[in-house]
## 1
Amino acid sequence: MESADLSAVWLTLKLATTVTTLLLVFGTPIAWWLARTRSPLKGIVGAVVALPLVLPPTVLGFYLLVVMGPHGPIGRFTEALGLGLLPFTFPGLVIASVFYSLPFVVQPIQNAFEAIGDRPLEVAATLRASPWDAFWSVAVPLARPGFLSGAILGFAHTVGEFGIVLMIGGNIPDKTRVVSVLIYDHVEALEYTQAHWLAGGMVAFSFLVLLGLYTFNPARQKAL
Amino acid sequence: MKRTLPLLLALFAALSARADEVQVAVAANFTGPMQVIAALFERDTGHKASLAFGSTGKFYAQIANGAPFQVLLAADDETPAKLVKEGYAVAGTPFTYAIGKLVLWSTDPKLVDGKGEVLKKGGFKHLALANPKAAPYGAAGLQVMTKLGVAESIKPLLVQGENIAQTHQFVSTGAAELGFVAYSQVIKNGQIGAGSGWLVPGNLYDPIRQDAVILAKGKDKVAAVALMSYLKGDKAKEVIKSFGYELH
């Protein structure tokens, strides 16, 4: 492998780790709310969270490019803050990937929360646990398989992302040139040997991730 | 029903005998002119041209792996020659249908001056370029910057589109302030339509010869041969010129 390939692998892992961490932090409250709420807004929020499952990445990529560009609302906002524009930057990729992988993290966690039911939390309340305490010492440990599935799927899905990165990344070495884009590059330039190395690596990686998920977390198989 | 079915079949047979369909792979920069030419071609010959647009490198990979294209309008002259050599295209059929021109373009009416001085002066954060490894217009843009001695200073500002259409999209959405695109993408009534641009002088880059070729799947196909000769005709030439290409 050449150094360009290695740096793309490193960048991809960095992106996936950042995105997974952010999704666990921001996705968990969303999953909790979706699992517990009786609000009429539940349907709307659930549908928005699931949108990336059915939308082509080109739709997300195109809108993000327009919205984060200099004429879009987010673009104007980030420029006003002195942050510059998000397309063609690593933070831009992170934000795009958070949207793209959102359902893959939120849904398994939400399912796990829902599976717990009301009873353990009611019991915790009768033992004078505050809701905050009950969440951390009852709900989270019980939902552990959901967190594991969500984290693994979010990570793997971000590694496998292509369409959005292609549309808003600009293919910059060390900033936005992730493995999937580099494979595409190699194929376009007819460098099939290098393409095979990376593409084969992706197949092996994805298989191992899913194998691990199914082997060590058999209860979650049905949820997939 | 028993009687109408053979009748319908006969009708289809009659129609298909007269009007043939040709599957054409078209380089992204030639999208605009080819849509016009295909409409004229259909009107004048009765044949139908079904068009797919994309990058030449991707088309090469698809054709080498059995894609059903019958004619390729490439963005370079190397790919058709390579396809012929490898037996995926018909020898003797490649010809230059257009010579592409490069433009440094921005939607900002003031950014790009008529001499390309902006490349030396700077004042922009991103310059869009088609992937120079795969796209001829990208390679040409890189050549221009190298000749002007600005390639190294601009390198950190480069953002790459996977083909010239995406590169144009980066610039037209304003995500990149300026970029090297095909003249055919921004021409309107014989000049650069919107924003500001610099039509790069031909001595700064090698001519972008765009060759067409009949592919192995289009061999002896009536519509494929008809399309190739139509491309050489006056009507097509006029369209090609009006989109800012030079002719061979």
## 2
Amino acid sequence: MSTPLDAVFQKVRSENRAALIAYIPAGFPSQSGCAKAITALAAAGVDAIEIGYPYSDPVMDGPTIQEAAEISIKGGTNAADVFSALKTASTAGVAAVVMTYWNPIEKYGVDAFAKSILDNGGSGVITPDLTIEESGRWLEATTKHGINPIYVVAPSTADARLAQVVAKTGGFVYAASVMGVTGARNDVSVDASALVSRVKKATDLPVSVGLGVSTREQAKQVAAYADGVIVGSAFIKLLLNAKSEQEGLDAITALAKELALGVREGR
Amino acid sequence: MSIQTSEVLGHFGQYGGRFVPEALIAALDELENAHNASKSDPDFQAELAELHRTYTGRPSIITEAKRFAEHAGGARILLKREDLNHTGSHKINNVLGQALLTKKMGKKRIIAETGAGQHGVAAATAAALLGLECVVYMGEEDTRRQSLNVARMKLLGAEVVPVTSGSRTLKDAINEAMRDWVTNVATTHYMLGTVAGPHPFPTMVRDFHKIIGEEAREQVIALTGKLPDAVLACIGGGSNAIGIFHAFIQDTGVRLIGLEAGGDGVETGRHAATITGGSAGVLHGTRSYVLQDANGQTVESHSISAGLDYPGVGPEHAYLHDIGRAEYRAINDDAAMAAFALLCRTEGIIPAIETAHALAGALVIGNELGPDATLLINLSGRGDKDVQTAAQYFGIPL
């Protein structure tokens, strides 16, 4: 099986650079605003987009993404909106995946969720609270529909465990750069490069680093050792702080262009 | 046929398990290993037993509630007095066990969530006793409802962090505690207060509370010469209930009845009766029954009792419900408060409002079973913390 996401990583590998991956929750800052933001990010040079399916109890997320998720849930975002955002992204020419906690998937129907990802041009799903032990039905569904099951690993993940997790993973391995929740940080810790090299010993899959990246300089640093650089909270903060929708779109476009330069300067 | 009571790889039937960020797996494995080792470690067991004898005040006594029983169809009513434990509830059983495990694991800091404040007070107490740093997360809404317990925790040296995200109640306090844990897991133990959360918490917390049922089973037999007909307990997360149920699970003639918080009535949607009014789902790291909407978003729970005001429930209860070994019923706020008042006036015992749900259940079940029946009720906590809420409810000026 090969997804648009797999193709993105082949392409960036051939260009000897890292991929830029942006995160935005569906329904944020509004349903129409989200579609515009996705289109703007794609036009500004991001290689892939993670569409968040906001969940009421996001234990892996810091205050910025929590706030965006609350806005989205209050706006009534449901699975149909998530799939619609996915379609917007894939139509705009970028690889698109969904990132969500497990309960919304289970409630929607495990097989049906995987099928809807495929049907809307999506490549896979990042499941930050789904452990490999609980993944039986999910992996059946992702295999059946040919989408990437993307798992998150952390600095605390021991090598033996890491080997088990990456063996179940498709698309890329999501390396959480620090022990902690999502949110922009001044330093993307030294843990990140150490974790990436441990992951690379365990698998040939691309490895992307998330948690904390917000500037071109940080993107450049991470791109030196990782195959993908994931940026979420920094974009969301710009949208939250913007005085108008257009100002927000302009701001994320400018940041995405900077970051796109950053991921090309790392090597 | 014996009923499968212990978990299989962290599961109770289709419930339980681990739905957590990978960052926490190492800590959960470490905790599971420490808990398993402690079960066969005579020194650990002796230390915990000694603490219970000289600090908690165990064994807790059984009180026969004869005047209260007149309102319960004449059934014999026996109260297991967990309210007489140090700190005023069953919660101390679990925190002393977990605090000893924290020391075994070489960690110096504990974090805890609390709703009514009972677990937070217990955690702060254990931390003070064993010299651990303690941070308690509490929904901002609950810090107002239970300001007395906030002061108690502070007096005991704990830091209380009001949680302002989401519904600002217990569910959000757990989210915030888990975020802290993900960040500080190397130095910190998460002292979860109920039989929910990822494996090993549901099993471990049950193991620390099962002493309630083990004592009560012997005490009831010594007093009455037989097993009780029914064992009743209130259910929020379900720790006091699993604690008293567990020793009776193989006694299939003994009915096990959990009383959930019906709030304004399950039919109104404003309740915390997770098994009665919820559906299977995942919340806070475990699969169990959950109050959720059509999209799998958690629905806010409602109860006059802060300690039962939680949209989830322990996975072992979900399993006991599905296999038919335990029954779960909802008790509305008004029925709970009526039973609260009745116990005060007939027995001179002010129960926690949580516990009053079990007492209200006893009034119903007693009338169903009649005067020959014996009911054992877990009097899980005392009501000092609820005086303000009760005074407000009954119109007593403060």
